[in-house]
Amino acid sequence: MALDAARPSAIAPVIAAAHGISVREREVIGHLVTGTGTSAIADSLGISAHTVRDHVKSILHKFGASSRAEPTALLLGTHRPL
User: DSSP per residue over 43-77, as a string?
Assistant: First the structure.
């Protein structure tokens, strides 16, 4: 019996939960993975751009990341450990 690798969509919620990502932060991440900019995220979620930036800072801190691309890569399964 062969085992297939888990799809990113199946493991992303587990990874997010392991990093203590809130429900709202998950919504922001959903936009980040598609490359949506801060203003568009704010408009979509009905929050200010400042609040989006605060959520992004929190996400980066929780993942120990320095750019938006790092948590996105981890959640999409494109991150390669060193």
Answer: HHHTS-HHHHHHHHHHHHHHHT-SSTHHHHHHHHT
Q: Which of the following CATH numbers is that of domain 22-76: 3.40.50.1820, 1.10.10.10, 1.20.1300.10, 1.20.58.220?
A: 1.10.10.10
* pLDDT value at residue 54: 98
Provide φ and ψ at 12, rounded to 5°.
-55, -45
Q: Model pTM?
A: 0.82
> What would the pLDDT profile of 9-40 be if each residue is shown by its tens digit?
778 888 889 999 999 999 999 999 889 999 99
Q: Does residue 2 come out as left (phi exceeding 0), alpha (psi in the -120 to 50 range) or beta?
A: beta
